[in-house]
Input
Amino acid sequence: MRIIIKEAGTEYPMKDAPAIKTPQDAADQAEELRASETEAFCVMLLDAQNKLKLAEIVTTGIADATLVHPREVFRSAVKAGACAIIILHNHPSGDPTPSAEDIRMTKTLVDAGKVLDIKVLDHVIVGETTLSLREEGLVDFV
Output
């Protein structure tokens, strides 16, 4: 089962939702990001067992950038009572290497999640391959 992500602000509730156990599980649920010609930033809302509650595109941008703010990222998570989130975005260039801004923004979102008691489990970048900032050790998600 894959989620369908279409446009900013549109939520897609899941029935019999899969558990997201790995960064690749998250990327597989958002395969549409890989084909996008512009950057899109997605948030996956998870319950206490890391089952996908819903996913939405928070913002879309241009070929190599998108604006992201904690307010938009956590809005749906708070409304849905999510226990955790996984954030994803694509790099239309195909190269999933995170920029300094990707890392800075992820740290900001992790800190915001701590205040809200909503864990940020990972930031997955989708390109020709998938990169997990958690697995690469680029951000402290604790």
User: Anything to note?
Assistant: The domain at 12-136 is CATH 3.40.140.10 (Cytidine Deaminase; domain 2). Confidence is low (pLDDT under 50) at residues 1-12. Strands lie at 12-13, 40-46, 52-60, 84-90, 119-126, 130-132. The helical segments are 23-29, 32-35, 70-80, 100-116, 133-136.
